[in-house]
């Protein structure tokens, strides 16, 4: 059985899982990244660029570009905002809650470094209200930072009092989309909005706003402490650094694993997951959560980095890997996920609200064995016309996973194999 190399080198290293104990975090090397940032704030973005850090919330957008764009955007009042997006509500993803529960100081130090670079005077930890332990740990950790000398040094550099607070999100899946985050923090319903303007141009209170995923921010203090070359060298294949993979489904050892970005799907499933459940064989995996193209047995040796997975016409996304085995109905799993998307559509875009409802209804009919030829034709039409028809990616993700399952497992839909 394949064994992955050197797990838990950075974020999940045991001596760094200290909960809300700031003194323990500092004893494990915490604070050094922020000190280095304060010593040379103008070099922060350059270091992140050299490290190759990308957003870990799904898109994989280069972090330095996002930070630089926000830092260069004009502010009306002089205020700027850094938002840690920990809404995490997608099926199969459970990395951010673990970081906030067990290692919140990594995340907060990363947010402080972002504030130093962008001269933001507001930091918001935007956390799903269902994550009770994460909320409690984050609030305790914030209180400790506010009393520490490094926090006062950051304030002095920014030139304004630094407000850092924990805010509960709406708890809705759609509330994690970046413009929906802005809508909620501005006191409205978490409706996604058309872009531009982008949050870095006009975000919270109409001011430049930087939104980063929890995991993205957690990597930052380590990069600023150890250097870009060290971080890049941790990766494999086309990946850099490490990645948190949320492994679930029909494997012996589901769980959260930090591994070099670029390890193969086989290494994750067999080495960390312990292989398939007894008597089961690998069938497919929903990558990055249930809104991308499925990968199958022929893809087991694909490196799990943003580029390599994209080359397979899928996406690494959040790093969630939901494994299913032979004997498990792909249609049933897809039906569950499409119902989730339909239930979580915010309703402001008719193609999304109506389209996801119809997808859920039709896939459910297939699962129940009562679908007709007209149902299948309607499914095909929907997955062709729905992508891109809404203000956010929900509608596209829903259509993508249905289209992928129909293409990859046509017999389960009652379609000819050649189709």
Q: Please indicate the percent range of residues in DSSP E strands (runs of 2 or more).
A: 5-15%
Residue runs with pLDDT of under 50 for 5 or more positions:
none
| Helical run tally | 17
Helix content: 40-55%
Strands across the major sheet, in which order? 6-5-9-7-8
Q: Termini distance? A: 35 Å
What is this entry, summarized?
This protein is an alpha/beta fold and 419 residues long.
SSE blueprint:
Elements: H1 22-27, H2 32-39, H3 44-51, H4 63-72, E1 81-86, H5 95-102, H6 104-118, E2 122-127, H7 132-146, H8 149-158, E3 163-168, H9 178-185, E4 209-213, H10 214-226, H11 228-233, E5 242-249, E6 255-260, H12 265-272, E7 282-287, E8 295-296, H13 306-311, E9 320-325, H14 330-344, H15 350-368, H16 373-385, H17 394-408
Parallel strand pairs: 1-2, 1-4, 2-3, 5-9
Antiparallel strand pairs: 5-6, 7-8, 7-9
């Amino acid at each position: 059985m394949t064994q992955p190399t050197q797990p838990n080198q950075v974020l999940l290293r045991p001596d760094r899982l200290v909960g809300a104990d700031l003194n323990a975090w500092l004893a494990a090397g915490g604070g050094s990244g922020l000190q280095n940032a304060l010593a040379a704030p103008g070099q922060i973005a350059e270091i992140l660029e050299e490290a190759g850090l990308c957003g870990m919330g799904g898109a994989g957008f280069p972090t330095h570009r996002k930070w630089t764009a926000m830092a260069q955007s004009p502010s009306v009042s002089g205020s700027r905002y850094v938002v840690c997006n920990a809404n995490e509500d997608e099926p199969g993803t459970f990395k951010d809650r673990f970081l906030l529960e067990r290692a919140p100081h990594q995340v907060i130090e990363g947010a402080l470094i972002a504030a130093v670079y962008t001269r933001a005077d507001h930091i918001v930890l935007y956390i799903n209200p269902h994550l009770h332990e994460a909320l409690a740990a984050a609030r305790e950790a914030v209180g400790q930072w506010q009393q520490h000398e490094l926090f006062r040094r950051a304030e002095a550099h920014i030139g304004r009092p630094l407000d850092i607070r924990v805010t509960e999100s709406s708890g809705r899946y759609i509330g994690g989309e970046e413009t929906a985050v802005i809508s909620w923090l501005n006191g409205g319903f978490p409706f996604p909005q058309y872009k531009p303007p982008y949050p870095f141009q006009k975000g919270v209170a109409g001011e430049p706003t930087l939104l980063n995923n929890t995991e993205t921010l957690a990597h930052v203090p380590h990069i600023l402490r150890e250097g870009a070359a060290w971080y890049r060298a941790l990766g494999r294949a086309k990946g850099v650094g490490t990645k948190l993979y949320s492994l679930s489904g029909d494997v012996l050892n589901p769980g959260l694993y930090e591994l070099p970005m670029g390890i193969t799907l086989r290494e994750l499933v067999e080495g960390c997951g312990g292989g398939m459940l007894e008597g089961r064989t690998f069938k497919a995996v929903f990558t990055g959560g249930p809104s991308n193209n499925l990968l199958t047995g022929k893809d087991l040796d694909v490196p799990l980095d943003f580029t390599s997975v994209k080359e397979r016409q899928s996406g690494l996304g959040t790093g969630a890997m939901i494994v299913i085995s032979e004997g498990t109905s792909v249609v049933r799993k897809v039906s569950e996920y499409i119902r989730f998307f339909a239930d979580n559509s915010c309703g402001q875009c008719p193609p999304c609200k109506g389209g996801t409802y119809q997808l859920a209804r039709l896939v459910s009919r297939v699962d129940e064995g009562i679908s007709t030829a007209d149902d299948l034709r309607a499914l095909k039409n929907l997955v062709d016309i729905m992508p891109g028809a809404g203000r956010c990616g929900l509608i596209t993700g829903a259509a993508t996973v249905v289209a992928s399952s129909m293409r990859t497992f046509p017999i389960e839909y009652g379609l000819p194999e050649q189709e």
